[in-house]
Amino acid sequence: MAVLDSLRPEKVFGYFEEITRIPHGSYNLDGIRDYLIAFAKKNDIDFTADEAGNIIYRKPAYPGYEDMPGIILQGHMDMVAVCDEGSGIDMKTAPLDIFIDGDLIGAHHTSLGGDDGIAVAMALAILSSDDIPHPPLEVIITANEETGMEGASGLDISNIKYRSLINLDSEDEGIFTVGCAGGARVSCFLESGASPSPDQKSLQISISGLTGGHSGQMIHLGRANAIKVMGEILKKASEVSDAAVTDIKGGNADNAIPSWCTVTLSVPAKDADSVIESVRLESDKQRKIYSETDPGFTAEIIPCDEISEALHLSISKASDFLKALPNGVIAMSKDIEGLVQTSLNLGIIDVKGGKLHAEFSVRSSIASERDELIDTLKKITGEFGGTNKVTGVYPGWKYAPESPLRDKMVRVFRDMYGYEPKVEAIHAGLECGFFMDKAPDIDAVSIGPDMQDIHSPLERLSISSTQRTYDYLLKVLADKG
Q1: What is the rounded end-to-end Cα distance, in angstroms, of the chain?
Q2: Predicted model pTM
C-alpha cells in the first residue's frame, strides 16, 4: 500500500515513492535506469540513453510557448545509500521503508534519497502532464553524481540544444545556488606488514552513533569524523602495547562524514587489559569533546573469537597515519562570508587487496587550492611508504555577474512570496560545474526543497516545501517575461 498517496501534488509524490522502491545507490543503477526508460516509452516521450548512463528526455513546448527559449531541467538518478550500523539492510537489493512524520518524509534506518529522487520525481511529473505550460524542454537525469559526477562528466553537450539550466539538486527552499566548489576523490594506500605473532588476543573496537552528514554542506559544523576519532583512540592504545591492526572498516561514502568505524586488533595477551583500559579512557574523552555535535556517540571494545588476517599493520603506524591525515575545513572564503573555500573529508577506510585504504573527498572553489591539498595527501601517504590514486576530478562553477535566468527566477519568486530569495555559492559540488565547463554560455541556477541531514539515515524531506518548490518551478516555466 502506498505511503504517500494522500500527498499533493499526487504525481510528484507518486513518482517519488516509486523511486524509493527501486534500489539506486551509486553504481547500482540498472533498476532505476530501466524504470526511467520504461517511463519514456509508456508516455511516448522522446529520449536518449547515452553511454555514460544518463537519460535525456525531450518534450515540445506547450501550445503558445513554441517561440520561448528552451529550458533544461536537470537532476541525478543515484543516491548515497547508507544505513544504520547493525541494521542488516542490504541497500543493493532492499527497497526503502519510508514513513511520514508530520511535515517530513524519512526512511527507517536508511538514507531517503530525497537527494536527488525528488528532482527526478518533479521532472517526471512535468514530462507526463499535458496541462502544464512550458517552453521546449530537455530533461537530463545523470548517473553516478554522488561518486564523482561521472554522468555529467561523460555527457556529450553537443546533443543538448538549450542554454538555460535549472538544476534541481539543492536542499534549501528559497536559496538559489549560483556557484559551487570543484573537487576530487583521493585514495590513499598503505602496505600490510608481517603476520601476527603467537600468543595474541583479538580485540574489536567499535565507534557508532555519530551524526555524520554531507561533507560539503556540513563540514564546518564540527561534527565528529569516526575514522579520525578512531585514530585518536588507536594512538592511546599504541602507548601501552605493540599491537597490530588486523582489520579496519569505517564510513559509507567519501562525501559523507563517517558516523561509524570498527577496528580489529591483535594484542599480546599480557597487554590486553591495558589496551582495553586505554581505549575506554580515550573513548570517554572523545565522547565529551563531541557531546554537543554527536550526542549519540557510542564506543565499545570487546574480545573476538579469531584473529583477522585481512591486514597486519602496527598500531603505531596506523594511528600516526590517521592522525597525520588532514580533515575538515582548511580555508574559508575571503569574498563570501561564512562560505567554506577549501576542505576535505576522510569518508571511507577499509582493507583492499591486503592494503589499508583511506578515501577522501577534496573540495575547493579555487582549483589551485584543491590541487595543493591533493599534493599534501600524496606527500603524507608517501612519507608512510604508501601510494595514492586520484579520480573523479570535477570543475567548480564560477558566479556569473549577469544571468537572465537568475533575474527571471528571482522576479518570479518575489512576485509569488513577497520577499527576495537568497542567492549564494556553496561548498559542495554540483553538476552545473561540468555543464559550464563544457558550454560556458550556459546560464544556470540550482534550487530544491528543504531537506535535512542528507547522505545519512537521518535524512528528511519536507512535504510542504516540496509542494511549494514544485509550484514555483511551474510558475517559472509558465512565465513569458
Answers
A1: 43
A2: 0.73
